[in-house]
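quick one before i forget lol
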Amino acid sequence: MADTNGPAKVSAAHGWPMIKGEYHAGSDRSCVAVVTCGSHLDDAAILEAGAAISGSCKTENLGIEKLVIHIVSNPNIRFLIVTGTEVKGHITGEAILMLHKNGVSDNRIVGAKGAIPYIENLDPAAIERFREQVECIDLINVEDIGRITQAVRDCIAQDPGAFPGEPILPRAGGGETGSAAGSDSDTAGDGDGTDDATPGIGTGIVSGVSEEDVVFLRLKAAENNISRIGELNKFKAGIHSGKIEGFVIGFVFMMILTALLIYGVSLLRIP
């Protein structure tokens, strides 16, 4: 229900925020979310300034997916302050800004420079909703709590009210966005009102999230983590083998050069 005084507010998804992570939550009626990237700042002070949620985000894939879910499941959030130290290698803060600015292409965040900036568990509709719903405030590498809390208050002063749309939540299903609150899809067309698609993480416009959905999301996240760890290990192994190969080539080259120098000196000594 909308508030009668001040900017119009609506109810966030039941149980918001429902995805576990390194964050603290305040009022779900606030228009501001704060992500502190690689820093662990004073979340209590940020919430006291009026933020709805504040916490770190270290990965440019699953971490950002959770961030997007927290935002699109609460239409009251209209500003996202990206602050804290940038995460080396992942470059998560920039990835968040690039996702908001450019979206994704073939699951990759366009313009992101991190190691693995892939969004694989969100529907395009959820990503577009994220881009439309919030304005991003770039305070990357800022850890000054005074400056951050002032930015929170500045955003609240400009609160435009809730985004005109129902909360969007992750769900197990075919990956399509629902058309009404609590609706199910009958993708096989057999008239039984159930979703017969191969299970996958998608987003739906729903009023809550079931235990089955949460378990499925966590299993999928673990599977993706294992896959990404494997890719990262291969990358590191390639770098290591390249270093060894370079050392061997350099050593052989130096031996040949030394032998040529010795041979040249010996020729000069011949009468």
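fyi The longest helix spans residues 211-269.
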